[in-house]
Structures are given as structure tokens and as C-alpha cells.
């Protein structure tokens, strides 16, 4: 992977770049033909928005606080990405309901079964400046991605959507404008940072689960950054170093809101704000970071 070119590392699927190594054609075909159930739960995110965090929180809500699934099954098998190569191997058709999946797909990339069945979606969003920051470090350590280059270079690619899973702006606009909004819970990384217990309650309510205050507390406690970081089933330490070099940057890196302030120059902040303003000018949705 180290010596591969951009053309070898990424392929275009429904107009969006996907990392070929993780999403070979047979996986994309599997995903296209996948049949949803109405009680499926889909964690949907643009990469680096807190997917792994949700892969911890949601199974614990489903298990009503039993830690077994999160302590014994790696996050990528516990809540598999439907578009990832591993999904084919996991016999998802036989899994008991409610099945929990993850996807980085844009709304328009979802398959026919999704639009027919309308499973439940948790759409997690994060301040794009922090998504950029988290991505910048991640692209520097993950060998299946094109190297980020300088911060300025990576910013232009990010703003232009020339990275894995394309444009953050298109991703968010597609999902907030979805017609099936009543089956989607919109949630912010920043609200989970501000009030994890409240977020657990909110997600549980959407999923039709009533948890006791003790169980809610237990889940939130297990899922705070410093605790979750210790879970080898969720901190990606099981991934070989040649694939993700966590000596360069850890996967569970800082886990805070506003880290962009430590990275952006004033010029970069202005550049980012100007593009954000232009691309989001018709959006009325209220984001937590605005
Ligand atoms: P940072 O790089 O800013 O630390 P994803 O799982 O979508 O790839 O997102 C990864 C980001 O979510 C990383 O952000 C990671 O640290 C953060 N994250 C994961 N678990 C978290 C937790 N329990 N609390 C806060 N942030 C978490």
C-alpha cells in the first residue's frame, strides 16, 4: 500500500471516492444487494465524526448495559460497515434483530432496499473543522489512504471533497435533506461531549429502549474517552501497524471538541469559513457548532 498511487488507492463509486482496499468491487456489489429489515439500526457518519464512539454506545443500549459485546467483539465486527470487505464474511443475514450497522455512504449511495424499508438511522455529525483535524492526523497514519501532504494541501482536498467518501458538505446536506427524516435521529459529536448521559438517553428513546438511570450511567461511564480508549476491542490496536501506525497518531487521538483551534492558522480559518459559508448558504438546519 505504501507505494501505491492515488488511482490505485481510491475508486469512484456513485460519484464518490472510496478506498479500494477496504471497499473492493465485490463488497460494493454486496452492499448494493443487501436487504434491510425495518428494525435495523444504521450508524451513519462522514469519516472521523465519531463512528467508533457510536459503535460502542449503541450496542450497549441494545444489550441494556451488558458489556460482553463491546469487550469481546472488535468494533468492526460488532457494528460492521456494510460497504467494507469484511461484511461479506459475517453472515449478516443470520444475525438476530436488531442488527446494528455502520456506513459512511452519502444518502444518494444507499441501495434500493434502504429506500423501501427505511430502517432507523443515527446520523452523527461533527464540526467540520474538527473532522478536518482528525482526518489530517488519520491520513498521516493509515497506509490505505493517500498521504495528506501539507496542511494547506489537505485543506484544499478536504474542501473540494477529493478524499475518501468525498465532500463533507455533500454528505451532510444529503442526509439532512433526506425525505425519510422521521426514521433518522440527528445527533452531534459535540452534544455527546457536552452530555454523554443525556445523549445515551436520547438515542435509547429513539430506539424504543427504556433504560434505568443506573444502566444509562454505566453506559456513559464506559464510553467516556479515557475509558473507551483502554478497550482493545475498540481502540484499533488489533490492526497491524503496517496498516495503521498508531505510533504516528493514535486512532482514539484526543476525543475533544475544538481541537481545530490548535491546528489552524488564521489564514486557514478564514479560508475554511469562506468555503463553509458559500457551500452551506441555503441550509436552514441548525448545527451545534454555529
Ligand atoms: P480525534 O482524532 O479528534 O481524537 P471515527 O470513529 O468516525 O473515525 O472518528 C474518530 C474520532 O472520534 C477521533 O477524534 C476519536 O478520538 C473520536 N472518538 C472516539 N471515541 C471517542 C469517545 N469515547 N469520546 C470522544 N471522542 C471519541
From TrEMBL:
<dbReference type="GO" id="GO:0006584">
    <property type="term" value="P:catecholamine metabolic process"/>
</dbReference>
<keyword id="KW-0963">Cytoplasm</keyword>
<keyword id="KW-0808">Transferase</keyword>
<protein>
    <recommendedName>
        <fullName>Sulfotransferase</fullName>
        <ecNumber>2.8.2.-</ecNumber>
    </recommendedName>
</protein>
<dbReference type="GO" id="GO:0006805">
    <property type="term" value="P:xenobiotic metabolic process"/>
</dbReference>
<dbReference type="InterPro" id="IPR000863">
    <property type="entry name" value="Sulfotransferase_dom"/>
</dbReference>
<comment type="similarity">
    <text>Belongs to the sulfotransferase 1 family.</text>
</comment>
<keyword id="KW-0128">Catecholamine metabolism</keyword>
<dbReference type="Pfam" id="PF00685">
    <property type="entry name" value="Sulfotransfer_1"/>
</dbReference>
<dbReference type="GO" id="GO:0005737">
    <property type="term" value="C:cytoplasm"/>
</dbReference>
<dbReference type="GO" id="GO:0008146">
    <property type="term" value="F:sulfotransferase activity"/>
</dbReference>
<feature type="domain" description="Sulfotransferase">
    <location>
        <begin position="38"/>
        <end position="283"/>
    </location>
</feature>
<dbReference type="InterPro" id="IPR027417">
    <property type="entry name" value="P-loop_NTPase"/>
</dbReference>
Amino acid at each position: 500500500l505504501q507505494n501505491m498511487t492515488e488511482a490505485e488507492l481510491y475508486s469512484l463509486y456513485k460519484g464518490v471516492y472510496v478506498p479500494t482496499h477496504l471497499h473492493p468491487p465485490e463488497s460494493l456489489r454486496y452492499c448494493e444487494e443487501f436487504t434491510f429489515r425495518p428494525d435495523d439500526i444504521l450508524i451513519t457518519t462522514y469519516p472521523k465524526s465519531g463512528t467508533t464512539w457510536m459503535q460502542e454506545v449503541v450496542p450497549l443500549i441494545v444489550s441494556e448495559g451488558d458489556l460482553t459485546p463491546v469487550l469481546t467483539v472488535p468494533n468492526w465486527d460488532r457494528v460492521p460497515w456494510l460497504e467494507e470487505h469484511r461484511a461479506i464474511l459475517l453472515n449478516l443475514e443470520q444475525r438476530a434483530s436488531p442488527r446494528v450497522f455502520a456506513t459512511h455512504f452519502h444518502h444518494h449511495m444507499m441501495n434500493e432496499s434502504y429506500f423501501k424499508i427505511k430502517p432507523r438511522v443515527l446520523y452523527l455529525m461533527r464540526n467540520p473543522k474538527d473532522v478536518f483535524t482528525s482526518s489530517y492526523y488519520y491520513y498521516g497514519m493509515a497506509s490505505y489512504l493517500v498521504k495528506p501532504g501539507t496542511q494547506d494541501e489537505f485543506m484544499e482536498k478536504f474542501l473540494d471533497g477529493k478524499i475518501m467518501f468525498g465532500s463533507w458538505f455533500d454528505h451532510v446536506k444529503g442526509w439532512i435533506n433526506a425525505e425519510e427524516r422521521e426514521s433518522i435521529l440527528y445527533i452531534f459529536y459535540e452534544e455527546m461531549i457536552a452530555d454523554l448521559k443525556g445523549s445515551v438517553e436520547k438515542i435509547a428513546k429513539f430506539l424504543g429502549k427504556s433504560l434505568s438511570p443506573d444502566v444509562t450511567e454505566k453506559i456513559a461511564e464506559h464510553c467516556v474517552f479515557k475509558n473507551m480508549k483502554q478497550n482493545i476491542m475498540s481502540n484499533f490496536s488489533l490492526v497491524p501497524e503496517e496498516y495503521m501506525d498508531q505510533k504516528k497518531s493514535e486512532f482514539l487521538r484526543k476525543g475533544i471538541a475544538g481541537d481545530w483551534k490548535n491546528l489552524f492558522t488564521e489564514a486557514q480559518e478564514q479560508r475554511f469559513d469562506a468555503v463553509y459559508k458559500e457551500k452551506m448558504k441555503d441550509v436552514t438546519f441548525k448545527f451545534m457548532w454555529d
